[in-house]
Predict the 3D structure of the following.
Amino acid sequence: MAGFLRRLFSLGSAEAHSIIDKLEDPVKMTEQGIRDLKKDLDEAMHNFAEVKAVAIKAERDMEKSKNGNLDWERKAMSLLQQGQSGKLDKEKAERLASEALARKEECNKQYLIAKQANESQNQAVQTLQKNIESLKSNIQQYENELVTLKARAKTAMATSKINKQLASFDSTGTVALLERMKEKVEAEENLALAYGDMSSMSTNIEDEINQALISDNSGSETSQTAELAALKAKMGIQ
C-alpha cells in the first residue's frame, strides 16, 4: 500500500495539476469555500460569546472587590471612631480595625487580579470582534462574487461548447459541397435555356415568312386606300 502511495505521489506535477483542474468545479469549490467560512464564523461567534462572558464576570468581580475594599475601609474607620469615643474598648476596636484592614487588603488583591483578567479578556474580545467582522466581510464579498462567477462559468461553458463545435466542423468539405450545388444549379439553368432555344428554332422561319407576307399585304392595302381617297376627292365625295 505504501509503495502504491509513493508511486501515486510521484506523478509529474503538470499531470497532477491537470487532473485536479478537471476535478475542480469553480462554482462548487467557491460555494464550499463560503460554507467553510460560515462554519468558521459560527465557531468564532461561539468563542466570542465565551470570552465576552469571562470578561463580563471579571468586570463584575473587579467592581465587587472595589466596593469591598471601600466597605472594609469604612468599617475600620468606624471601629477606630468607636474606640476613641468609648463606645467600644479601644484595644478591641484597634484589633477589629486591623482585621477589617486585612480584609480590605484581600479585596484589593482580588480587585487587581480581576482588573488584569478584565483587561486581558477585553483585548481578546476586541481581537475576536475584528476577526468576526473580517470573516463577515469576506463572506459577503465571496457571495457577491459567486453571482458573477456563476454567470462567467455559464458563459465560458457555452463559449467552449460552441468553439468545440466550430473546431470539429469541416469547413473545407462544406464549402466544396456548396460550390458543387451552385454549379449543378447553373448547369440545370443552362440546359433549360438550351431546350428553349431548340424549341424556338422550328418556328422562326415560319414567323419570318408570315411577317413578310403581312408586311406586303399591309403595303398593298395602304396603296389602295390612298387611290380610293384620291378618286373620292376628284368626284367631290366627302
